[in-house]
Amino acid sequence: MSQTMTGAEIVLKALKDQGVEVIFGYPGGAVLPIYDEIFKQNHIKHVLVRHEQGAAHAAEGYARSTGKPGVLLVTSGPGATNAVTGLQDALMDSIPIICISGQVGTFLIGTDAFQEADTVGITRPCTKHNWLVKDANDLAKAMHQAFQVATTGRPGPVLVDIPKNVQMSPGVYVPAREAKRKSYNPQTRGDLSDIRKAVELIEKAERPIFYTGGGVINSGPNATRLLREFARATGFPVTSTLMGLGAYPASDKQWLGMLGMHGSYEANLAMHGCDVMINIGARFDDRITGRLDAFSPGSKKIHVDIDPSSINKAVRADVGIIGDCAVVLEDMLRIWKSGGSKIQKGAVKDWWKQIAGWRAIDCFRYAPSETTIKPQYALQRLQAAIEKKDFYITTEVGQHQMWAAQFLKFEEPNRWMTSGGLGTMGYGVPAAIGVQMAHPKSLVIDVAGEASFLMTMQEMSTAVQYRLPVKIFILNNERLGMVRQWQQLLHGERYSSSYSEALPDFVKLAEAFGCKGIRAEKPEELDGAIAEMLAYDGPVIFDCMVEKHENCFPMIPSGKGHHEMLLGEAETEGAIDAAGAMLV
Amino acid sequence: MSVMQKPETIERHTMAVLVDNESGVLARIIGLFSGRGYNIESLTVAEVDHNEHLSRITIVTTGSPMVIEQIKALLTKLVPVHKVVDITVAGPSVERELALIKVRSTGEKRVEALRLNEAFRGRIMDTTLESFVFELTGDPGKIDAFVELMRPLGLVDVARTGVAAIARGPEGM
């Protein structure tokens, strides 16, 4: 039996039927009827953020750490426009989030009404799909389709824009099974003849490599399990993108570390020198490939991706397989096993010898200091303190993010939340809040830079309100470190606006928010201070004063190939030419 | 420049796209092209199934083979899109366009315009003592040729529909 209820009631019922437990949001005039319904029920917990961008990133953190969709609720006009950064972030990193936005009444649309914005127009390019629902009878369908679109195929953000009068009008509720749309059927099963071709390449490979990405994590625990099984059965080396960290355990001997611009020397040289590249759920991002015409010139490339437009977009695949990572891996593994689990044993052994030579370079080494805290050292000490704990890491964007990717070790998927594609400074604090809401008993740390932290630090107030014991571990170099590094290497050491002259006292700031503030300035203070942070049962802002001019290495300068990687300061002189500077 | 991709050959393709006729669908398709700097040479759209509310869009585009492949994949990915067929590669096809052409002239020029219209099998949709509106259908090249001929004969306005295309033979898209 279909039921009639108000639009606002339909929204809440659809959320409940979709299994939503938490939503992140900020009220305003155009969503008051929905907030009224939230007030009247006990199934769904609402987290009041301090800015709508925070709601979007919190929903992302929730989604990335659970594998479930995240939901945010914002008002019309500025509420929706503030969420745009988070929507684009989720689009680029394939994160399923559902944004419900209020809109002015249908009779006011187009009149420049108070807090009116063309939300579906503005968000059309930064969502996977969006809906403006002008009739309460269409609302349940749109809500259910929103969840379907966000979570299936290549996941991504969606938005449902609901005018205020629609929230208050009666409409018929339909369950999810009656809301499917005919036009949307993403392919999950890969073409078997293509998978056979891939297996043939794998059987003959002499210098193979698994290059995996966020798609493995999005595909779910089965994809991770199958990747591990396949990698161990073949004995092939494994690298992954920033987004894919944790799909393969960092402690495993076949793990080469992250690849790309600040990835490991061994991962990048193995990518450059491989003869068969097995790309599972990664998209040949420009931060991965470096100069395209120098990218892995001698390899046959297998590319598994659920998004047909990812295949042959940047790099031509010799075998392109459209499908879900877990489904394709299962078929691939089965076909490879039924063919006798063949590999070129001798050649692969020699390949590992070559890789061992690259590993011996020890590319993440840095000059230690007894007087100042090196950011890498701070992360090594953090890693040592948390490695036995049940931890989740979020980051901001910049040098600290790359160092975190290099020095923190992820053994499981969904433990690492970072803004990869869009590179959104300010992502980490609200994302940590979303993660902590989903995992109240776990340790959640935002590895931050002081500049990124300042972009969304108001969310510490949210953390305090909901007693979320997130730890903000700021590597404070009083610089926009990555900008400063590029200016040093590319722009003749002209440090244009990459220095903050008026930073707050982060310990006092923490206290003002009602958090604990801790500062560490000397290497010998670090372990004790980290222990104090971890022991505190509440949100902490940790101000770790680090070396101000440390650069992040290794580094593939823009415009260069993987084989032209810089290992340290000594190699940077004139390394980047004008054409490279343009490619930044 | 060494860091840039080598220029590839540019091809012209006609694509037929079957979509749900809902608000915003055209904006999604146009946004997909404009946001990436792809070309639209012509685009026609109309509802073709009133019960199912399906519209058929015909897009003529140009690009390198990699770009054409991207366009097809990106169109297929859109939620309201049911089917995308690259008419150019799918097999033999018919492409037609309709144009309304206004010409203003008198005397010899008016007679010549009328004669050329007959030669092109055009129809006269409107006439005054000093003007004609011709209706012409055909492939875009034929219409281009006719418009060029009308230019010295008093061409005033041209309205073109853009290309509608369909595969030859008994099969549907």
Report on the structure:
- The complex is a heterodimer of chains A (584) and B (173).
- The longest helix of chain A has 15 residues, at 52-66.
- The model of chain A has no long low-confidence stretch (mean pLDDT 96).
- The N and C termini of chain A lie far apart (58 Å).
- Chain A has a six-stranded parallel sheet with strand order 3-2-4-5-7-6, sandwiched between helices. In chain A, strands 11-10-9-12-13-14 form a six-stranded parallel sheet, sandwiched between helices. Chain A has a six-stranded parallel sheet with strand order 16-15-17-18-20-19, sandwiched between helices.
- Chain A folds into three domains: 3-178, Rossmann fold, CATH 3.40.50; 192-359, Rossmann fold (3-Layer(aba) Sandwich); 375-545, 3-Layer(aba) Sandwich (Rossmann fold), CATH 3.40.50.970.
- Chain A has 584 residues and is of the alpha/beta class.
- Chain A has 23 helices and 20 strands.
- Chain B is α+β, with helices and mostly antiparallel strands and 173 residues long.
- Chain B has helices spanning 25-34, 65-77, 87-90, 107-119, 140-150; strands spanning 11-20, 42-49, 54-63, 81-86, 93-104, 123-128, 131-138, 155-160, 164-167.
- In chain B, the strands form two sheets. In chain B, strands 5, 6, 7, 8 and 9 form a five-stranded antiparallel sheet that branches.
- The longest helix of chain B is centred in the middle third of the chain and has 13 residues, at 65-77.
- The radius of gyration of chain B is 19 Å and the shape is elongated.
- The A-B interface holds A 120-121, 124-125, 128-130, 132, 149, 153, 181-184, 291-293, 307-309, 311-313, 316, 559, 579-580, 582-583 and B 1-3, 5-6, 19-20, 23-24, 27-28, 31, 35, 66, 69-70, 73-74, 76-82.
